[in-house]
Amino acid sequence: MGCRMCRKWEYDIQEKAWGAPSLSQWESAITGLGEMTQGRLQVNFAGGEPLCREETLPLIVHTANCGMDAQLATNGLLLNEDKARELGRAGLKNATISLDGARSRTHDFLRGRPGSFEGVMRAIDLLTRFAPDTEIDLNTLICGINLEELPGLVRWAANDGRINAVGFQAVTHPFSAPLLERWYESPRYSFLWPRDEPRMEAILDELRELAKGNGIRLGFIKNPPVQFKVYKRYFRQPEEFVKRDGCHLMDALNITPEGEVRICFEQPALGNIKEKKIEEIWFSEQALKVREAISVCQRNCQAMVNCNFDGEKEYELG
Ligand code: SF4
To answer: 290 in ligand 1 pocket by Cβ < 6 Å?
Structure first.
């Protein structure tokens, strides 16, 4: 892929530099997560593209065996009949497929690869037929290029009958790209930013109405309706957006391809599952220090508009 809103693919292809954990180290970390949470956890396999990694399937099986729900975030391109059957048999609870436009031209442009849209449609078909117990969600970027297509995309998905839900994320600083102040004005990324403010507001209002269940099933859009108000403010004033109560990512647990455990990718790692058990890492001195740093982080972090969104009261809505 060559996604235009994320440069992670440039990093992921440098696999030789990783030193990834072994399968048993990954399994041990997942077992630990299950024990720490009494199985009340959803484990999300994300990337890059997790189906590029041969450990993904056995780890989905292991997650299900530990009593937890496994979710796969995928572009769908590597799915075929066998892989869809294997995922279904593995107990995959949810496949979330990225779809960034209602038209193939839009999705293929944003993903940087012709045929990507067709690949998503094929993936939906394969999972429906060969992994019937796996829910299919869509994950969709909100950006300047696809804005006009978004209400239509939701209505199509809601009426299609095979899709469980659609979740939206506003475009933010491209992942894994060098930090750029006012990135949305840079020649490389400015096309991603919604420039027509009245249209941006009208579309986000329309999505908000759909999220309230007006015209489609309530809950079909995973974002709470108020999040579209927050997106409007963010697109109007990206530099001034402030979340009132600071960072709420205190308990987000990410494990990188190298095995590093991180809460925030801008803060140091808590430890590495190649060296320690996940339980030790999560309750370590280093974890306390990182949480302290997070609690006082003053960065006007754009991740806050999307990640772990937790309601109206904590955001200053204009
Ligand atoms: S940069 Fe700061 S505000 Fe953003 S997720 Fe990290 S700790 Fe939270």
So the answer is: no
